[in-house]
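The protein record quoted for completeness.
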Amino acid sequence: MENNRKLIVILGPTSSGKTGLSIKLAKKFNGQVVSADSRQVYKGMDIGSGKVTKKEMAGIPHYLLDVANPKRRFSVAQYRKLALRAVKNIQRENKIPFLVGGTGFYIQSVVDGIVVPEVKPDWKLREKLEKLTTDQMFEKLEKLDPERAKVIDKHNPRRLVRALEIVLKTKKPIPVLKNNNQFDVLEIGIAKPQSELKSLIHKRLLQRLEKNKMINEIKKLHKTLSWKRLEELGLEYRFVAQYLQNKITYQEMVNSIQIGSEQYAKRQMTWFKKDKRIKWVKNYKEAEKLVKNFCK
């Protein structure tokens, strides 16, 4: 199939090494990177979201980083529109787009052509839903939209409210358009043993906490964002915000981020394992071989 239909996806759980692998592959195979990370789209959220640095990019153009203001919610529909534009621009230049990240729903929106209806916020409905616990919201979503429930962060009230709002307003689950023949896709997943992943998560967490880098980033964000909004942004942002409000101790913050990240990695893997198209690799060599055959 001609080059301008090809799309390579690099996915895997948090801290598994997607960034490093994708840059190495993009350098070798004339590629450019489109990020598929629901927090790296936001400006100013660099350390807590593990955003790639200019130096790490090694000259490879990256798209869909810093495209949104964290004050406002950025929807999957907005992401899909910008990501498709970036992918097509890269293909037009006769280069290969690498869609890279761990946000399953973002990846699926591009690969399977999920069109998320543009539903305007219904504040009365949101108020009603916000009175439920996250468990109650998740249970409700499982009944109304089981596919969406499989990939959602079930501890994130903001995401749950939005998913329920869409399904309740449109009266139907978000459609999954499988066999979206827009692209010739190769999906590569990074497989890591759980014990190794745990230590990689811990190592990365310690790096982010060095010299208070992540804490200072979140203090700076708080100049324009409320504590409530920071907590909505999930994981690192939630627990550092709680620590800065003296709701939890420093050690509780560290432990909560570690445990939360491990649980998030498990949820990511549960979702990825449902996709039988993913080719799992253990190292660069295996990934390189797959890409080489795909690009022939």
